[in-house]
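Dear support,

Our group has been running a series of protein-ligand predictions, and this particular one with 2-phosphoglycolic acid is the one our PI (initials K.S.) wants archived with full inputs and outputs. We had some confusion internally about which version of the output was final, so please treat the block below as the authoritative record. The input we submitted was:
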Amino acid sequence: MANKAIVGNWKMNGGTATLAEVASLLAELHETEAQVTICPPATLISRIAEMAVGTSLKVGAQDCDDHASGAHTGDISAAMLADAGAECIIVGHSERRAAHSETDQMVARKARLAWDAGLAAILCVGESLEDRESGAEIQAVQRQLLASIPNPDTGEPGDLVVAYEPVWAIGSGKTPSPEQIGEMHRAIKDSIKEPLSGKIAKAPILYGGSVSGANAKEILSVPEVDGALVGGASLKARDFMPVIKAAG
Ligand code: PGA
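Confirmed final output from the archive:
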């Protein structure tokens, strides 16, 4: 089994002062086998990419526009993020699906553009509390995932990482049980196995939603969990390092 991937999603947090957290992280990264990625706000990507040269740290983006270029004031393309030093882009985060009305079709276009720019797409899916409480969580996630993966007619698939993030677990301190996480990750693996290309079928599956130093070991020891997408606990090195170390 490959090393686990730990991805920090800083959301709309961080500025020049936060670069000290990256420096602290870099000083300790040799103590882990995990593949660590930070997805800072776009304003910090190039600076963190410079700090990460010669280290195992990777830098990613939190979103890209669903057009390749053109008259889209204020938006940033996948190719621009690649140029700034990003190696991957989170697409379809539930906060963007909710606050920016992103549809599965838009998310699929973003993943396609990430691939076209040579970047991995970290595709987020997750059920609402309503879906979970009505027992429809697996169908909801499978439907969302298959609709958000780029259509094979649009070109060759690039690197895909799936992040399973139950909407009700994000920022809430609540997490599904290890059994529920294992069940969902198996369902995700099953749904991408058959109809799609070999590369997509092998996508690592991360868990995200209230991962912290206190629960990371338990979550990361679920056999179907290939890593974690971490929000709040990724902002400070002293909170993020225990999550990273729990990955091995
Ligand atoms: P959280 O966020 O770890 O703060 O719950 C996770 C995410 O939204 O990616």
